[in-house]
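Notes on consecutive records. When two proteins share a document, each keeps its own sequence and its own token line. Never mix them. Below: protein one.
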Amino acid sequence: MARAPKISFAPLKPQLTATAVVLAGDDVSTGVVTKKALADAGNLLVRAAKAENFKGKLGKTFALVAPSGLKAERLIVIGLGKLKDLKPGDWIKLGGKAMAKVPASASNVTVLLELPEGKLAASAAADFALGMTLRAYKFDRYKTKKKDDDAKNGEKNGAPANITIAVDDPAAARKEWASREAIGEGVVLARDLVNEPPNVLYPVEFARRASALKKLGVGIDVLDKKAMQKLGMNALLGVGQGSSHESRLVVMRWNGGKKGTPPVAIVGKGVCFDTGGISIKPAGGMEDMKGDMAGAACVVGLMHALAARKAKVNAVGVIGIVENMPDGNAQRPGDIVKSMSGQTIEIINTDAEGRLVLGDALWYTKERFKPAFMVNLATLTGAILVALGQEYAGMFSNSDKLSSRLTEAGQETGERVWRMPLGPEYDKLIDSKFADMKNTGGRYGGSITAAQFLKRFVGDTPWAHLDVAGTAMASPASDINTGWAAGWGVRLLNHWINTHHED
């Protein structure tokens, strides 16, 4: 389990602990309290900055070990650049950069979060703390030697660091931090789920962990194989029929808005492991397919964040959880299945399985909850990686309004999305000679034809499909994440809901 640092807020005072973090603006300018805290070191900061060619540019950092004249054993300096150029989204990155410089042996850290001039907003302080928390994450529960490593690094039983953030208004910062802490917990939960090995996190276990949200007041329904058969979810069940682990559908309900208000619905693909089935994948890199449930992990993390911060919204999270294995009972290319919607599907490739899971899950969500908006997340296609790399998730939507709002939320949080096309020309590519549709549309436009497939299960509901194959697993390193899984989507969707759907 990841060990989050213990964050607290205190009034600004010129006091430093063994590990200290200070802010410096353009030309290494500092605030009044910071100047007093560094007074005993004379012009040490200026001299050291000159030696390091540090000019206080945004995001630049340097550290001094055992700085002369200070009790601090390590002084970490974070550049702010020109204050007028600072954006709200920069603070979470700055917190991550600060945490990257904190040594593993540090037990107590003081951050003088002071601007060279003016007062720092409480929201910025909370974002800085969130950045530190997310950067501190590591998934090491299966390392048997981690206690020895912790001891070598000076950590007492792997205890997390105590971080005190000194700010202008501690009470306001604590209030803002309450919601950020909930969001951070949601991101960490999503990361943990994606990082788990597939022999540990199979469908029934995934459902059990999602059910733990009950303690936060989330209503939980778990549909087993029998219940899904009764509903006619043959598309979802067909994917998992080759596995010894039964499939599950988990419904999570958070009712924090006005009674009777239609909910926002988030639907996630949860393929706990994807061999490709009979259309088996190459061996190289197949181990990464433990992350093919990252969409579902995001939904669970998001529902945790909404409940933990008591969001004033009615929200529904639905995840289809399966394992795609190639045994004698596995689905075959050429099979035809009837989905819950009544539409029939010809299976062309059993490795195009995620859209089968989502088709039934989307239809179920639409019919049962009549949501105001519906967003699904899925590590759906390799084609989206070819198109966008790992910087953006692909977004497909039948709603300009929803698309623009998600794009805006992506820019604000750094979890960016790029809208891709939909159209009748692409839709024709998944028409089948033998059924209502087939589950692949050929080599070209693979992420688009996958989205066209999903579109047949959403009706008139305003909907967006986020293809997160490039962003949610084997994630590129960033200021706030150095692990394999980023927990991508939790902050994006939380921001969208908070901005547009809370009472």
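Protein two starts on the next line and is unrelated to protein one.
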Amino acid sequence: MEGIFDQVSYLPYLKNDAQSVFYQGFLFRSCLNLYEVDEYGRPTLDLCRVYTEDHKNYVLRLIADTIRSDGVQVSIEDIFFTYDEIIRQNRWGIESLNTWNSITVALEDGRITVGFPSASKDNEKFFTNYILPRHILFTATLDQYRTDFAVSPVYNDCASVLTQNKDINSLIFDLGKCEDTHFAYYQIKNYGTFENFSANSQGEKKSIVDVYESAYALEGFTGKNILTSKLMGVFFNTDSDKVKVRLRRAL
């Protein structure tokens, strides 16, 4: 369980802070993988093969046979819909997407071409945007995306949102079908403010939060300062008979 103190969204493009983008990755995939890089520090291939000669004009093809949670396969039209209508045209009027209105996106002969105003290796980051299902959202308004789709999201990654009504401030992801982790569930709980969390964990002693992000280390937690510009992975063997619940929480 992770303690948070601000609003997040597991739906792509509604919020783009680091926490929200991380949670969105439980449910949605992208052409390039934001959380895996090659020996040159570039995002690795996920749904697509992406090619460029000048870091300004890119050609991509769908390479992964991915079935969404509703049984429909991810298509090249899904990618075109996401890149052109959701991002370039910004049909939902999301302010953070205005920066992409000068790109070009075209679909022809089963491939997509994307052009940027100037050449830069950073343009590759565009292809880490999560792909949305066209067959569900092609007529949806932003309000319908926020409500109807949020209640029953059609996702293309391994996790799912666990239905639960006991705690309206918690969101639980079921990771049971995810092959690259031994976690069964990942829960985030919004305390609103750090003060509320402090009172809950120190005074009432009710919190079972494993990790939180703050400059202050409360009793029972150990503060860690991580200064790095690299993506970091932490692994431990949950198959070992030496790993008990208490040790997992400590880790």
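For the record: The longest helix spans residues 76-88.
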